């Protein structure tokens, strides 16, 4: 759809260095059928900002969904889709409608996490918790938390990590308690015959390690009473030890 705008941004190294190219593709770990160009995130952000200034930005956003149905978009096109959704000027209701089309298309951790870290507009919504915009957005996030799709659940977790670990931290913990890991269908698991939503579990661990950095007492209290499975707790401890913010902080 916008491949003509992305192809000039493909690094020469990605085109010429097979080892580097395979390494980048393995890091993204896209599902089979999703093509990857190798464009760097800063370049995709700059392109999305340029597209957001166009008069037809909203029409362009609405076109991504039909384009994905006709022929699977490149990974980078999905990333730009999400970034444009964050950068375009529109109402929260309009953005939510666009988000409802975008989130079901998320099929790897990179698309999910780049979108979430760039959704600065959500911070403004959180400032007025009595508004209908807040109610709508929190309802949408809650629906994602109980989804059976791996990356819809991860989306809710990473959005919570980015924006809800201050005043809403206890609400986030309560959502974690209600995640049914056994009901989540991992598209990776279907291929590998592994019934474990790895990217949800890793998202939980990452979010909890971040929560420990921001509010250690509340997080340790939660971790000592929660019913999360042992593998998530082990991933949490690993994340705690890996982060320079928490490597000297007791996880429990």
Structure in words:
The protein has helices at 3-6, 12-16, 18-28, 41-52, 57-70, 75-87, 92-102, 109-118, 121-126, 132-145, 150-163, 169-177, 187-192, 198-214, 216-223, 230-242. The chain is mostly helical and 252 residues long. α4 (41-52) crosses α6 and α8 packs parallel to α11 (150-163). It is globular, with a radius of gyration of 19 Å.
Our measurement of the CA-to-CA distance between the termini, rounded to an integer number of angstroms, reads 49 Å
| Mean pLDDT, all residues | 94
Q: Could you spell the SSE succession in H and E letters?
A: HHHHHHHHHHHHHHHH
Class by alpha and beta content: mainly alpha
What is the overall shape?
A: globular
- SS element count, helices: 16
The whole-angstrom Rg is 19 Å
| Proportion of residues in β-strands | under 5%
Biggest β-sheet strands, sense, barrel: none
Poorly predicted tracts of residues: none
Overall strand count: 0
Helix content: 55-70%
What keyword list fits this structure?
mainly alpha, 252 residues, single chain
């Amino acid at each position: 759809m916008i491949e003509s705008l992305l192809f000039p941004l493909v690094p020469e190294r990605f085109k010429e260095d097979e080892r580097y190219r395979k390494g980048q593709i393995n890091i993204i770990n896209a599902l089979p059928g999703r093509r990857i160009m190798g464009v760097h995130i800063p370049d995709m952000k700059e392109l999305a900002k340029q597209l957001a200034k166009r008069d037809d930005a909203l029409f362009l956003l609405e076109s991504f969904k039909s384009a994905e149905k006709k022929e699977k978009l490149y990974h980078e096109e999905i990333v730009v889709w999400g970034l444009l959704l964050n950068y375009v000027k529109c109402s929260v209701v309009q953005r939510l409608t666009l988000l409802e089309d975008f989130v079901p298309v998320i099929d790897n951790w990179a698309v999910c996490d780049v979108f979430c870290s760039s959704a600065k507009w959500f911070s403004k919504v959180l400032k007025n918790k009595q508004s209908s915009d807040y109610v709508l957005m929190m309802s949408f996030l809650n629906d994602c938390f109980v989804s059976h799709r791996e990356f819809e659940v991860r989306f809710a977790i990473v959005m919570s990590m980015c924006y809800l670990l201050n005043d809403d931290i206890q609400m986030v913990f309560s959502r974690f308690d209600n995640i049914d890991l056994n009901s989540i269908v991992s598209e990776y698991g279907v291929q590998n015959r592994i019934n474990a939503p790895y990217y949800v579990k890793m998202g939980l661990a990452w979010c909890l390690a971040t929560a420990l950095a921001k509010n250690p007492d509340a997080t340790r209290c939660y971790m000592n009473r929660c019913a999360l499975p042992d593998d998530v707790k082990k991933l949490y401890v690993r994340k705690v030890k890996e982060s320079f913010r928490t490597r000297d902080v007791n996880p429990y």
